[in-house]
UniProtKB/TrEMBL annotation:
Pfam families recorded: Pro_CA (PF00484)
GO biological process, one term: carbon utilization
UniProt-listed InterPro entries: Beta_CA_cladeB, Carbonic_anhydrase, Carbonic_anhydrase_CS, Carbonic_anhydrase_sf
Cofactor: Zn(2+)
Comment on bound cofactor: Binds 1 zinc ion per subunit.
GO molecular function annotation: carbonate dehydratase activity; zinc ion binding
Similarity remark: Belongs to the beta-class carbonic anhydrase family.
Record's keyword terms, sorted: Lyase, Metal-binding, S-nitrosylation, Zinc
Name assigned to this protein: Carbonic anhydrase
EC number: 4.2.1.1
SUPFAM superfamilies tied to this protein: beta-carbonic anhydrase, cab
Organism: Canavalia gladiata
Known role: Reversible hydration of carbon dioxide.
Length: 311
């Protein structure tokens, strides 16, 4: 007896799933039909489903071709492509610019002062601890020309110094390291004009809403209260300007709440200074906290001397 031809099933997932049976005799065909009857029925149903899917895809391709023939569609597509390319190029340009700046620094500063940088690689001994605002317009190194190794810095919103009892923060952690480990001689707190943190403090509402900014700038609430009480000018901008300096002096007083800072200030080993940078007219005010006068007055008010104005 001749063996029946093999059953051929296509591996193409989008092709018909119908089973193709062939036999050299009608009996073999009948047996195959009996045995595979269910498969043949399912195959016909799946074939119909696949044909419908193929028709839908064909219609989608037709619709897409029709849409692509629309000038407005082509213009929008080209515009989107250009925007994507432009964004990618801008990202590259930004970091290419930073790369050029770094290589310029390496060539013109690092290599020319390589002995100094090698010393700094072993240890640092800065004279200054600087607390400044995180504002991008008021970089202390740019304004006051601090060179590598000259100033240990911490920057935060509104250049605030929380009192000792407020607990740990990145600001007092930096202070502890600078004063106790690096043994800096000067602590300089720098405020500035048009401070967004101070504006947030002055416009803060006495409600239950919370945010990271509000939770931080509330450190300066006493400066806000004092500014509101002393405000003779109803102009909000002028009140903010007054609070920028008031908050700065409160931060200087808060420094004295740290026992290890007050001890060194009292012994003349550390000096506390305030600075105010006005970038509208590019001027700088500097003053030094008068510790002895503050202790004599015993009224919690700031006393300063050695005032300077640079313009």
């Amino acid at each position: 007896m001749t063996a029946p031809a093999p059953i051929r099933v296509s591996r193409d997932p989008f092709a018909s799933k119908s089973l193709l049976l062939s036999s050299t005799s009608g009996a073999a065909a009948l047996r195959a039909s009996t045995i595979f009857g269910r498969a043949l029925i399912i195959g016909k149903i799946e074939h119909a489903h696949v044909k419908l899917l193929t028709d839908l895809r064909s219609n989608e391709r037709f619709a897409l071709k029709a849409l692509m023939g629309n000038p407005r569609f082509n213009q929008q597509l080209n515009k989107t492509k250009l925007e994507i390319v432009s964004e990618a190029e801008n990202g590259c340009d930004i970091f290419n610019d930073l790369k050029d700046r770094f290589l310029n620094f390496k060539k013109n500063k690092y290599m020319e002062s390589i002995e100094q940088f090698q010393k700094l690689a072993k240890a640092q001994a800065p004279k200054f601890m600087v607390i400044a605002c995180a504002d991008s317009r008021v970089c202390p190194s740019n304004i006051l020309g601090f060179q590598p190794g000259e100033a240990f810095m911490i920057r935060n919103v509104a250049n605030l110094v929380p009192p000792f009892e407020s607990g740990p923060s990145e600001t007092n952690a930096a202070l502890e390291f600078a004063v106790n480990s690096l043994e800096v001689e000067h602590i300089l707190v720098i405020g500035h004009s048009c401070c967004g943190g101070i504006r947030a403090l002055m416009s803060m509402q006495d409600d239950t809403t919370t945010s990271f900014i509000k939770s931080w700038v509330v450190v300066g609430k006493n400066a806000r209260i004092k500014t509101k009480a002393a405000a003779s000018d109803p102009c909000f901008d002028q009140q903010c300007r007054h609070c920028e300096k008031e908050s700065l002096n409160h931060s200087l007083l808060n420094l004295l709440t740290y026992p290890w800072i007050e001890e060194k200030v009292a012994n003349g080993k550390v000096f506390v200074h305030g600075g105010y940078y006005d970038f509208i007219d590019c001027s700088f005010e500097k003053w030094t906290l008068d510790y002895r006068e503050i202790k004599l007055a015993r009224n919690g008010k700031v006393a300063v001397d050695n005032k300077m104005f640079w313009c």
